Amino acid sequence: MTLARACGVVINGVEGLVVDIEAYLSQGLPGMTIVGLPDTAVGEARDRVRAAVQNSELSWPSERRITVGLSPASVHKRGASLDLGIALSILSAHSQIPEMTKTIVIGELALDGQVRPVRGVLVAALCAYRRGYGTLIVPHTQVNEAQLVPGLKVIGVKRLSDAVAFLRGEEITAPAPAPIELVTESIPDLCEVRGQAIARHALEVAAAGGHHLAFLGSPGVGKTMLAQRLPGLLPKLTDDQAVEVTAIYSAAGALAAGQGLIRTPPFQAPHHTTTKAALIGGGSNSVRVGMVTMANHGVLCLDEAAEFERSVLDALRQPLESGVVTIARSGFQTVMPARFQLVLASNPCPCGKFIGNGAQCSCSSQVRRRYFSRLSGPLLDRIDLRVTLERPSLAELDPSSGELEGTEVVAARVAEARERAAYRYRDEPWKINSQVPGPMLRRRYPVTQSAGELLANDSLEISARGADRILRVAWTIADLRGHEIPNETDVAAALRYRDGNGSWQAS
Length: 507
Description:
The chain is α/β, with parallel strands linked by helices. Helix content is 36%, strand content 17%. It contains 22 helices and 18 strands. It has helices spanning 40-43, 45-54, 83-93, 121-130, 143-146, 160-167, 197-209, 223-228, 230-233, 239-251, 276-280, 291-294, 310-314, 317-322, 365-372, 377-380, 394-397, 407-424, 438-444, 449-455, 464-481, 488-499, and strands at residues 3-12, 15-26, 31-35, 65-71, 103-105, 108-109, 115-116, 135-139, 153-157, 213-217, 267-268, 281-282, 288-289, 299-303, 324-328, 333-337, 341-346, 385-389. Strands 11-14-17-10-18 form a 5-stranded parallel sheet. Helix 18 packs across helix 21, helix 19 crosses helix 21 and helix 20 packs parallel to helix 22 (488-499). It is elongated and about 85 Å long.
């Protein structure tokens, strides 16, 4: 046989694409050529594959001209995950192993023939399952990751010779993979935050309704502490959500060997020097996962938000509305999930002391305006809850003043409120209040007459988007209080959170 075929997978964003690897041995000047838009790493597979085959005591067809074609040829191929598939297709064309059918092969080859781990094994397994492939050959350290997808026969190999032995029908003795580890992140407890009753309640409302949240306050008042405790109030991820989040981390190369499904809502807190491409995702030939996608079904916390570049912050506006990120380049377009809860934490000015009457602030009005203007009005208009934090008194910080409610107690109330919302929307495609479209909210789920009159006050100068968000927050507050329909007090509380004590400059 002079022509043989294997199948591999390349990762683009959080999606996998099956690549047909064809090897053709022909007469001519000995050498090896890889065609099909390979990047540098794929092109260098020529030397890795040849050395791995020779060091595995297998015969390399040195007297033949080798052409390896990667299709679809119009898609860029990046990374070293195709190494093992290229080697096996050449060996099959040289009649050293039988032809492979319904089998996908992924793995990087070392020069001595060892198979090294690659990113995106779970994504490749999902792709193989959806395309009807029955067998997946992966590095032995990533067997558990691939086995998170049921219905696949997963073969772990330590060396190229192990893959050859399996395809020949022989027994292989690859070491057992590491046992699956249950990911249990240590989330700080809410009882550790003292003296911020309003902010604590806002955090509870945000968790119950899936609302975006912003904290404004001087340094050291607890903004970051509060934001870090939001994931602990959210429900554990469902099976489908856990698979989706774990696949995202696999595609990003952030999944540890032996790690099981991620059940805790993810928490991402990028530094204020983060670029737009790192936050949103991007790339020229293929897409790398951004932090907004890493925060899918979880929390994205932007601490020191006013220190971020304005263009970086404004890039969040589209995913906040749609829940996805669309990366478009001249040759391709990729859509990645980005349904997260945004938490902004910011100082009011560079010195951080312009709270209340601002008597201690040393910044000029122009400096304050320039500093806070990075948080644009359209971005803040998408924030449902805005809270200005005051510095707590020493008496409030004293532990002897009494125990505060911890994460477990508050999370139970959040779960009850979400159950009420889920029952109300049982026949709808949404489950929490923040997901209900504005027109549908007004038509099907009206508030009481007095509450509606309060919201209709023209002096409030609220945008149409802002009014919809106030209604959503009012429904969440009503769910937490056990009210069947939001009344005037529920809407008034939502309006106070929208105003943020008048400190937030937004419509």
